[in-house]
Amino acid sequence: MVGRLILGVGLGVGLSLALAAGQARADDVTGVWLRESGASKVKFAPCGGAVCGTLVWIKEGTDTPAKVGQRLFSDMKSTGPNAWAGSYNNPDDGKTYDAKMTLSGSTLTTAGCAFGGVICRSSTWTRAN
Fold first, then answer.
1. CA 33-56-67 angle, 5° bins
2. pTM confidence score
3. What domains, with CATH codes, occur in the chain?
């Protein structure tokens, strides 16, 4: 009887830990992401109390003013489950915009917005690692 109780408690704890680990992973945006066009990759990593995204790869022959090593996303802080907000530095025009990003499974959607979020341009990314 005691053996079954210990086994049951052990399985319950193991299942709880596995579920907690799965939930922690569900909103983990860190890592390398490939843009939908296949032209670039950004690495999201902790920076201070937020997350930042740095350009780590550009497909050869891509016409862009962006440079590998350039920080594109800054100060991205959690706004809820699988959602962040911060700043996007657009290499095309050199301006900084409000940014939002949401994670759904292995798909990350980012958006740079102007005029208080009235006009937004979004991109879709998939995990590259």
1. 125
2. 0.77
3. 29-127 (2.40.128.520)
